[in-house]
Every structure is written in C-alpha cells, then in structure tokens.
Design brief:
heterodimer; A: alpha+beta; Uridine Diphospho-n-acetylenolpyruvylglucosamine Reductase, domain 2; 5-stranded antiparallel β-sheet; 26% strand; globular; B: alpha+beta; Ubiquitin-like (UB roll); DNA polymerase, domain 1; 5-stranded mixed β-sheet; binds flavin-adenine dinucleotide; binds FE2/S2 (inorganic) cluster
C-alpha cells in the first residue's frame, strides 16, 4: 500500500481525482482500525494532515468554521470561546481517551458516519453544514442530509470534507452520552439539545440522538411538538413519550433496544431541565 | 512495495530511514529502531500499551502511520532514562508498587508524563482522566495514581506509603 502525503488542497483534490482506489487518511483512528481488521482495500492512502488550512476553528461572518482536521483535543480546549457550542465541547470531552482525542479529527468523525459518532450528534443539534470540495468545485450540504445509512454518506469518492460550518446562535446547548464506562466508550445512547428559551417558551429547539437509528438522527417530531411550547412538566412528559416513539434503536452487544428507548426519554428530560435553568 | 524516506527525532536523536510507506509508527519504533519498550496489546487503540509522545502529546502508535510522524519529535519510554538513571516518575512507579507485570507501564508512564509536563500539580481526577486510555490488568490503578501524585506533590523525594499486606504479597508474587 502506498501512502502519499500532501500539503495543499490542490494536490489533494487532483490526486483524489486521478487515483480511483484512493482513500483519505486524517487521524487514522477509524481507518487504521479498519485496516487492522483486514477490511481496508483502498490504495493509495492520501494523508491530508499536512494541509494546515484545514486545522482549527475560525470565526467568520455569522458563523463558526471548524476545519476538518481539527482534533477532538483542540475542540475540547478551544470551544470555551463559543458558549452556545457547549454540546460539542462536552462531546469532545467525553470522546475516546487522550490518545484518541489527540489524533481523531472532526472531519473523520463525520465522514465515518457512525450512528454513535459523538461529534456528529453534537453538530446536528447545532445545525451544522458540511463543506465539500472536489476538482469540480465546492458545495455545502446540511449535516442532517449528509447520512444515508450506517456508515454511509453522500460524499463522493473524489470529494474532501473541508469544514463544518455552524451558524452563530444565541441559545444554549448540551450533550449527554451513556456508555459502558467513562472513557473509551461507544455511546449506548447519546442526546444533544440546542434551545433558545424566552419567557419559558422554546423559541428554537433542536434535538439529536446517537445510537438510536441506522443514522445519527434529529428528533424532528419531538422538536416540532416542543416548539413554542412552554417549558413545563406536561410538555416535557409529552416530549419524552414522543422521542421514545420517534427513535428506532436495535438490540446489540452494548444494550437492548428497550433500554435505549428508556434512556432516550430520561436523557432528554435531564437535558431539558438543565437548559431550562 | 512502496518505500518512503522518513526523518524525525526519536528520544532526542535525529533518525533518517527508508521504510515501507504503510508501516505503522509502532512497527517503525520496534522493528527499525529496536525500541521494544513500545508494547502492542490490542492494535486497535483500546489498550494504550503502544502509547508514545508525539510532539509532547500521547498517541497510540498502533494507529499512526510512521510516515505521518515525518518531522515530529517522538518520545518513547527509552528516552526517559537516557543517561541510565531513572526519571523521578519511573522511580515512583517502582516505589509505589505501580508496576506488576509491566506490560502497561511504558505507556502508562508516558501518559502520566504528558500530563505532568502540562500540569505539574494535577488533581486525582485529572490523573485518572489522563491515564484513562491506558488499561492495566494488574494493579487496580490506585498504586499508579499514588505514584503520579507523589511526583506531582512539592515534596522533592516523596516517601511511598507502606504497602498493605495484600499489595506486598501481590508485589512479591
Ligand atoms: C479506541 C477508540 C475509541 C473511540 N472512541 C470514540 C468515541 O468515543 N466517540 C466517537 O464518536 N468516535 C470514537 N472513535 C472513532 C474515531 O476515533 C472517530 O470517528 C474519529 O473522529 C475519526 O477521525 P480520524 O481523523 O481518525 O479519521 P480517519 O480514520 O483518518 O478517517 C475516517 C474516515 O473518514 C475519511 N476521511 C477522514 N477525513 C476526511 C476528510 N477531511 N474528507 C473526506 N474523507 C475523510 C477517511 O477516508 C475514512 O474513511 C474511537 C476510535 C477508537 C479507535
Ligand atoms: S496496541 Fe495500540 S492501543 Fe492497544
Ligand atoms: S502492570 Fe500488568 S497490566 Fe499494568
């Protein structure tokens, strides 16, 4: 297997275009596990870690631009400046372990597209967009339209995910993950909520759930119900009922579907109460 | 077979080699440089036995390609006692009974070192979080946390707590 290291987008894009069986490697924390299990057939690998413009968080007009190569360790350290992104900071804090956070990138998390992806779940609640670049140009797509199946996305083989773009917002967000233990735990279930609450009413609300369906999902029906509702007990109880109906989790080695249904409601209640305070 | 040149610093020494481009960093360190203090447990990022410091930060060398370390500064456990004398952290691991079979120890010490370099006086919680990517099947972790805490306290030569009879028995076995 050949590995080609690039330091510019131009090089990366033209290599991806000309090498049919190529794959991108960023932090390698998903790709090299796949290789260790003999499930990687791509050749060559194109190492994009040298493209420095893809690293880090920058504030642009009305939005936050998170470069694809921003690691979870960087997210954990640098998101304090943007309190409305608390959900993403928390997801980064709980993700993997130090060794993983130092390598794993947000771009890799999104392209891997695991239904359990912690970064994805937080980004969904923050209404992020994905920026994709190929030889034929640039396009943007809402993150909630990016996933098509477990580990499947709409990214084309010759495209590079260059950034996650989050609109500047005035509300609050939070994230909660249940795993088998505190470190190195794939989510049994995770929920992120973004809300703008005025006079106890939900003026904006977005809820996303991980490990609850074939793709990381938004709980749109639950959101719709809560929108313009007052933050009070009966509404919260109805939201709990709705989210349990809306998700379609499975039994797997980590937990049963029934337990996940239970968790989804409980975590939502916990997060709504936290945001309401 | 695709070959590539790599140049990096390992334990303070500049190294230049021609290697197979798909080689993992762990293989490069163990096989090309004979730094066998880097251990392979799971090969999938779960155990932390292969931890080394890359530009001061702990990473799993089983999940990094050697060519991705081009130009980097790498520290392995061999680099801590370069002059034949153990570092304080290494000595504390011995004094506190934080080493049993020893398989996790190189990675564990490097994770702890990365923490102490950035945060010389961590809380117990910070220590536990810093070593959360390093599995130990023997010690139960407490002795490890104690060892790191001893080094982080201001006492120049921390006195180990006497081992409990059970720990002492474990240690002798
Ligand atoms: C021990 C361990 C624990 C983990 N814990 C967690 C956890 O708690 N939560 C969690 O969400 N994940 C976890 N993961 C999964 C993984 O670390 C993350 O998904 C990580 O963010 C992947 O990023 P990467 O840079 O390492 O991706 P890579 O492995 O480099 O790439 C992943 C995939 O994305 C593609 N890709 C990467 N970057 C781009 C780009 N910019 N454009 C186009 N394609 C790209 C690659 O071709 C590949 O298919 C864990 C993994 C391990 C090994
Ligand atoms: S061998 Fe690298 S983490 Fe287990
Ligand atoms: S001492 Fe044996 S695994 Fe830690």
């Amino acid at each position: 297997m050949d590995v080609l290291s690039v330091s510019s987008m131009e090089e990366a894009v033209s290599l991806l275009h000309s090498k049919r069986n190529a794959a991108i490697i960023a932090g390698g924390t998903d790709l090299l596990v796949k290789r260790a299990r003999n499930k990687l057939s791509a050749d060559p690998l194109i190492d994009i870690c040298g493209i420095s413009i893809l690293k880090g968080i920058s504030h642009e007009e009305n939005c936050l631009r998170i470069g694809a190569l921003t690691t979870f360790a960087m997210l954990e350290q640098e998101l304090d400046a943007y309190p409305f992104c608390a959900a993403l900071k928390q997801a980064a804090y709980e993700m993997g372990a130090p060794q993983i956070r130092n390598r794993a990138t947000i771009g890799g998390n999104v392209v891997t597209g695991s239904p359990a992806g912690d970064g994805i779940v937080a980004l969904l609640a923050l209404d992020a967009k994905v920026e994709l670049v190929s030889e034929s140009g640039k396009r943007w797509i809402a993150l909630c339209d990016f996933f098509t199946g477990p580990g499947k996305t709409i990214i084309k083989p010759d495209e590079i995910l260059t950034a996650l773009i989050i609109p500047q917002q005035s509300g609050k967000s939070c994230f909660y993950k249940v795993g088998k233990r505190n470190a190195l735990a794939i989510a049994i279930l995770s929920v992120a909520v973004y809300a703008e609450i005025r006079e106890r009413k939900f003026e904006t609300i977005r809820i996303s759930v991980g490990s609850a369906a074939p793709i990381p999902m938004r709980a749109l029906r639950t959101e719709q119900f809560l929108l313009n509702h007052e933050m009070e007990e009966t509404a919260v109880h109805e939201a709990i009922r709705l989210i349990r109906k809306e998700i379609s989790p499975i039994d797997d080695v980590r937990a049963t579907a029934a337990y996940r249904h239970e968790l989804a409601g409980n975590i939502l209640q916990f997060l709504l109460q936290r945001l309401g305070m | 077979m695709a070959l590539r040149k790599i140049s990096c610093r390992v334990n303070g020494i500049t190294v230049q080699k021609e290697i197979r481009s798909e080689l993992r960093l762990i293989d490069f360190l163990r096989e090309n440089l004979q730094l066998t203090g880097v251990k392979e447990g799971c090969g999938e990022g779960e155990c932390g036995a292969c931890t080394v410091l890359l530009n001061g930060n702990p990473i799993n060398s089983c999940l990094v390609l050697a060519v991705q370390a081009e130009g980097a500064d790498i520290l392995t456990i061999e680099g801590l006692a370069a002059k034949g004398e153990l570092s304080r952290l290494q000595q504390a691991f011995i004094d506190y009974g934080a080493v049993q079979c020893g398989f996790c120890t190189p990675g564990m010490i490097l994770s702890a070192k990365a923490l102490l370099d950035k945060n010389p006086h961590p809380t117990e919680e910070e220590i536990r979080r810093a070593i959360s990517g390093n599995l130990c099947r023997c010690t139960g972790y407490q002795a490890i946390v104690d060892a790191v805490q001893a080094v982080s306290s201001n006492i120049p030569h921390a006195q180990p707590q006497p081992l409990s009879p059970v720990q002492e028995k474990d240690r002798l076995q």
